[in-house]
Design goal:
membrane; globular; mainly alpha; transmembrane; 106 residues
């Protein structure tokens, strides 16, 4: 149910054409494939494996946004700086500096 609501939310936020363009980008084919295979595995009751595959797909698809989220997370009291460091590191692992939002449809 959460996967369906996630996809509906992205579609409502970006619109159908931009949502399709986001998932169909050539640079993100591994992430898109992993995301859809993860959803399929969850639907056929391989939930743990499907969840892991889907998490990988989300990391590849949305990893470049982690650095942006880190700048907002820094302002959270007490845990903000630690959370921001973790998100910054995850963004660097996902290659956010290499792409720098150049190919985003939004």
């Amino acid at each position: 149910m959460g996967n369906i609501l996630f996809l509906i939310g992205i579609t409502l936020l970006l619109g159908p054409a931009r949502t399709f363009a986001f998932f169909a980008r050539k640079q993100k084919w591994r992430g898109s494939a992993a995301f859809w295979v993860g959803i399929l595995l969850i639907l056929v009751r391989w939930t743990l494996v499907g969840f892991a595959v889907e998490c990988y797909g989300i990391f590849v698809l949305f990893g470049e946004f982690f650095k942006t989220i880190a700048s907002f997370a820094y302002n959270i009291p007490v845990v903000g700086p630690y959370l921001a460091k973790a998100l910054q590191a995850a963004g660097e692992k996902a290659g956010a500096n290499d792409r720098a939002h150049k190919d985003l449809p939004v």
